[in-house]
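Ticket #4471: structure export looks truncated?
Reporter: QA, pipeline team
Priority: medium

Steps to reproduce: submit the single chain below to the structure queue and open the exported record.
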Amino acid sequence: MSKGQDNTKISYEVDPFNRLIINDSSKQSNLSRFRQVLDGRFKIDKNNTLTYHIKAPTPQGTELPHQVKLEGKWVLDKDHNLCISLNKLGRETLGDKLTLKGEIIDTSKNSLAFSLITHTKDNMQSIYILKLQGAWQADKNNRLTFRIQKEDGSCDFLTFKGTWEINPATGRNSGAGKHYIIYKYEKSQLITKKKAIHILTFQGYWDIKDKGRLSYVMDLQSDSVFRFKTSAAVFKDKYIKYELGIGLGKSLEARTITLFGKWNIKKDIGLVFEVEYENGNIRAITFGAEAKLTDKNSISFELKNDQNKNISAQLQLSRKILDGDGLSFLRFLKSKDEVAVTVGAGFRW
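Actual output as written to the record:
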């Protein structure tokens, strides 16, 4: 952070058109004060560090370079603006908070893109994009968050404090939906001041790895996974249903997520639940299980994840719905004297 001479202190703010303002105040006199709007643009580097690149020459006596590095903590305000609370270390003034007013325009698997509108000294309007790198996650209240990894190894979190929903199912049947997570928020436009609904869309697929958790995977390589805490789960022959809540301050908004699909057993893989996504793409949720025959012409499964860890869920399937490898497994199960047979996690039949 740039620091003035011994008799000055520098603070920063942002004007309504996303231009950096410098305040250079004398320690000796409150009357001696310099305030200047700097024409330029913000940029974010690969380490998620914010800088302001000044187009016009820096004002005389401010001792500012043409590029101002602005380090601090990233947050998202209630209007979904991007904010940074500047670090106080080595600075004469404390508590500077810069608010960049704009719109979130993209939520890719490893990034968040934010558009800004600015004006030049000639009153020409332009739009440019800032992009933060990181990973999407869920917080303890099942709210959507974006984790920002910083150069010093620490992390900041942008928390989306509204609710989210699953988009309506489409296609040949109720199970053939796109399975997108949709987040909506209302915000006034910067120029017209009219309120508009903004929609953010997250694309991924469902997975079940942990007890009491339902995961929505955007990108495993970057850990962009929403791991939602759940209160109840039901596993049936044609669907899996989870109940969860989204914490909004003192209130809790309930969500029911139902995944329609088809169960089967695959050799060398285990028990799978196949879910149809957009364009007919099929993704399978893989389970291990302890299986045994019942007296009701069905197979009872004690479900585990694909690493053979118990997820505290039970499933009962009619023998009639199995085909392919499932029929081979059924014959194997009938031939064994054991009470239960393990499928998945390296177990063969």
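Status: closed, not a bug. The export was complete when the record was re-opened. Leaving a note from the reviewer for reference: Helices lie at 325-335.
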